Structure formats: C-alpha cells, structure tokens
Amino acid sequence: MLRVLARWWNISEAHSWIVGLRGERVTGARLDRLTKHGWHVLHSIELPSGSDIDHIAIGPPGVFTVNTKHHRGKSIWLGDHAITVNRASTRYVQISQSEAAVAAKRLSATCGWPVEVRPVVAVVGAAKIAAKSAVPPVLVMDGAEADRKLSGLTPNLSPTQVSQVFAAARQRRTWQ
C-alpha cells in the first residue's frame, strides 16, 4: 500500500497519512465501545471543503467532534490557547474549534434547535499528556481512553435529543 501511495505523494507524506490513519482507527475503535451505552458514533464526516471530521460522538453528555492526532512517544501540553507537541506549537486548538463550530451550525440547522458541539483532540501514542489550563479551550485526551473519558462526563441531552442529533448527523445533506 505504501508504494501505491508513494506514487501520489512523496514518501514522507504517505508515511504521515498512514500513521494518522492508524491513530484514527485506535480512537474510532474506542469510541465505538460507547454504542453499548446509548451513544452514536460516526467516522470520517466529509465536508464540502474536502476536509473531514475524524469522528463525531453523540451521547447523553452531548455532541463531540473528535480530531485524532498520532504522536508516538511525544509530550503533549495543553495551555490556555494552544497545544504543543514536544514544545512545538500546533494549530490543533483552532482546527478542532473550527470543526466543532461547523458541526454545531450544520446540526442546529438540520435539527431546528441549537446543538452545542464540543471539540476534542484525541492523542494516540503520546508519552505524556499534560493540561496547564483551568478552562481548556478543547478537551484533550488519550485516544485509547476516549470511551472512558467521554462516558464519564455529566449527561445533558435526553435520549430523544441524542436520537434527533444522530438522525441529523447521518443525513448527507447536513454536511453538504
């Protein structure tokens, strides 16, 4: 598979894409465990821009866009406005907030009522994840613990609301 991808991209880009996909699979498998507890999970929601939302989790605690990042052995730090990887700044906070805003706008329009969407960055393979913010701009968690972290949040949606949001999220026209 790597050789096929290498024809379209350079080797570095192909490797990065494959590593990212592995991380998304880890997080996705953990999120899928939530379905036993009244949650609904969608993967790889394509947007008109050509980008995608890695995962959307809809359950009693609310609606979450999950942006997965694979950083094996690296140190992740979350501050008031940024996430760093081994002290290098990233745009993960802004990208995750943007994905959540797009999802909130589109789901609200389809549902006919305001749908709050919280951004999540799920990091796979990190040696350390530390948060130094009292009120983090996004939830940051280990992707291998995403099911446990999200299911432990306080419920604020009724089963009917969860079903309505899931029905909206499954409609292709919601995202077009």
What is the CA-atom radius of gyration, in angstroms?
16 Å
Low-confidence stretches are none
What count of structural domains?
1
In terms of DSSP E residues, the strand content is: 25-35%
Please identify the structural class as seen in this structure: alpha/beta
What is the helix tally? 6
End-to-end span in angstroms? Answer: 30 Å
Biggest sheet details? 5 strands, mixed
Number of strands: 9
Mean pLDDT across every amino acid position: 86
Run of helices and strands: HHEEEEEEHEEEHHH
Q: How are strands sequenced across the largest beta sheet? A: 1-2-3-7-9
Shape: globular
Approximately how much helix is present in the residues?
A: 40-55%
Protein name: NERD domain-containing protein
InterPro entries: NERD
Domain NERD: 19-130
Pfam family, one: NERD
Can you walk through the features of this model?
This protein is an alpha/beta fold and 176 residues long. The protein has one domain (2-175). It contains 6 helices and 9 strands. The strands form 2 sheets. The chain has a 5-stranded mixed beta sheet. A hairpin with a 2-residue loop joins strand 2 (52-59) and strand 3 (62-70). The longest helix is centred in the first third of the chain and has 22 residues, at 11-32. The chain is globular, with a radius of gyration of 16 Å. The protein starts with a helix and ends with a helix. The model has no long low-confidence stretch (mean pLDDT 86).
Could you give a short description of this structure?
By secondary structure, the protein is of the alpha/beta class.
